[in-house]
Each structure stands twice: as structure tokens, then as C-alpha cells.
């Protein structure tokens, strides 16, 4: 992925420090520990202030975007994460019957401060647990007695 270093320099304190230091004469930077989709999403947001949605979102991609945004010290990272959170929320709804996916979204949402995704995952997990409980123990009425 090609991005002019001048654009990166102006968009991020991380890159300003890099280009003023050891990367002054570099023509290329390689990050082997990040996904291409996360890099494309974060750099596009840094340079254009617009969100270019990845083809699909997963909890690991959302986590990579969040971590990379923090690593690159992206200005207005919260704006980027609002867009990522919206996609994550839609994925939680789409996968509302898959407990493994919901658990992964719950953990990711907690780590990345995506409260709406976290709340949605908890709601669907609660529904799944309730359905499992009723399937295992029957659907008898639960009564509560209150005495005054």
C-alpha cells in the first residue's frame, strides 16, 4: 500500500517522530504484525478523515484497527472507532445465534471501549443462555413471592 510520506507526516505524531529520526531517508516501512485491511482502514482515515469500510468486519479486525490507531496516534481515533463499532454492532446482530462469535465480540468490545457492541453481545448471550436453560430444565413458570 503506497501513501506519500508527507501525508503520513502531517497526519500522525508517530510518523513525524519516525521521519524526523531513523526513518528520515526511508522509502518503505514494513509492519509485519498487522493486517493489510487494518492498515488500509487506519491510514485512509488518517489521511482523508473518511472511513473506508473493510469488506467484512470481525472481532480480530476491529481489535487490529483499534490497536493500530493507538500505535499510530491517530487524531480523532474516536471517530474511526464509532464507524468500526457500527459495523461490529451489525455483525453481532447478524451472528446473534453463534455463542463463540458473541463471546469474541464481547471481549473485543470491552478491550476497544465499544460499549454498544458490548451491550448487544451481552443481550444476545443472555438470550442464548436463557434458551439453553429452558431447553435443559423445562419451561416451567418462575414465581416470585413478595411479602409486605
Automatic annotation (TrEMBL):
A Pfam family the protein falls into: BTB
InterPro entries listed in its UniProt record: BTB/POZ_dom, SKP1/BTB/POZ_sf
SUPFAM superfamilies the UniProt entry points to: POZ domain
Domain annotation BTB: ranges: 1-55
Alphabetized Gene3D superfamilies for the sequence: Potassium Channel Kv1.1, Chain A
Name of this protein: BTB domain-containing protein
Organism listed in the record: Ancylostoma caninum
Lineage: Eukaryota, Metazoa, Ecdysozoa, Nematoda, Chromadorea
